[in-house]
Amino acid sequence: MLVVGFDGVELGTRERALLAAEEISGVILFSRNFRDRAQVTDLIDALRALRGEHFLVSVDQEGGPVQRFREGFTRLPALARIGALHDRDPAAAIARAEEHAWVMASEMRALDVDLSFAPVADLARGNRAIGVRALHAEPDACATLVQAYVRGMHLAGMAATAKHFPGHGSVREDTHVAAASDPRDLQALHAADLLPFAAAFEAGAEAVMMAHVAYPAIDPQPAGYARVWIEDILRGEMGFHGVVFSDDIGMAAAQSAGGIGARIHAHLDAGCDLVLVCAPALVEEALASVRGRAPCDPARLASLRGAAAGSWASLEDNPQRAAFIARLQALPVVDGDPA
Questions:
Q1: Which residue among 176, 190, 232, 265 is the active-site one?
Q2: DSSP3 helix / strand / coil % (the chain, rounded to 5)
């Protein structure tokens, strides 16, 4: 029921011992695990040799400021550039969203990465952590582009993970470093932040990642460990039956649940299927806290495994890919985009 981070660009003895634990369902890779394409391919092959094809390999390869693998990969523009295009030419923006998703996901699938946690379905309303990672400030435009992004990921053989439910974009605080609270009621959220998530589910998104944001008009706890959000609203009202990920339990906004073990159990008890433990220093404590707890249903994990993918050579021979990349790289830079 854990998806964990680890140090280094290869598996050492300690990493092999930790990752062999049956409580760990997968890993999330970071820039600290990446040197170049050949090295990260070898690393993923080693993970498969250790745990098999059903072990989840994931990454955040959104583009813009959040792209873990860069050298040797397409430098993906921030999603906000697509949103800016939507204001001028909605049809072109929808096409660019699909192409961005396909390029990102096809490159990851060529490495045998199962999941890039995408798309960001938060509204672009000034959150310090989200910023140019979001597609648009307006709910209807964001919903349309999120659906296009999910379609593009599916065309490349990758499951989609809409994040950060029920919406992280309308508060200022960065939950990596501070608690965040949104005072609006459920009706207001349904009319705005929840619309892109509903659109993602309609398009067939297989997973969702929760936000560490509290919505006290609904529940005083952050959404990731509030059962009303996961079981009553997400699964009940919105009819989502896919996989629910927590956000990283090492983030500051998760600390209200208590220590590492308390945070993990709070998320699992609220209905999360998989809990992210991104900091390597927290993995041993996380493992100790869940010994003996029933694991995530293997059938649910299977829905996240990527479809069969071509080789990197076949990607490079694909003229469609070159055209997609050229159009994406021609998108104008927007304010706040580090380019």
A1: 176
A2: 45, 15, 40
The pTM for the full model equals 0.95
Output the domain CATH number for residue 270. Answer: 3.20.20.300
pLDDT tens track, the chain, 339 positions: 999 999 999 999 999 999 999 999 999 999 999 999 999 999 999 999 999 989 999 999 999 999 999 999 999 999 999 999 999 999 999 999 999 999 999 999 999 999 999 999 999 998 888 999 999 999 999 999 999 999 999 999 999 999 999 998 888 888 887 888 999 999 999 999 999 999 999 999 999 999 999 999 999 999 999 999 999 999 999 999 999 999 999 988 888 888 999 999 999 999 999 999 999 999 999 999 999 887 888 888 888 988 777 789 999 889 999 999 999 999 999 987 866
Q: Is 176 a catalytic residue?
A: yes
> Among residues 114, 193, 247, 248, which one is catalytic?
247
Number of domains in the chain: 1
Structural domain that includes position 165: 2-51+58-329
Pairing of strands 61-63, 66-67: antiparallel
Residue 338 lies in a domain: no
The dihedral built from the CA positions of residue 140, 141, 142 and 147, taken in this order, carries a sign that is positive
- The answer for residues whose C-beta is within 8 angstroms of residue 172's C-beta and 6 or more apart is 126, 127, 128, 180
212 is catalytic: no
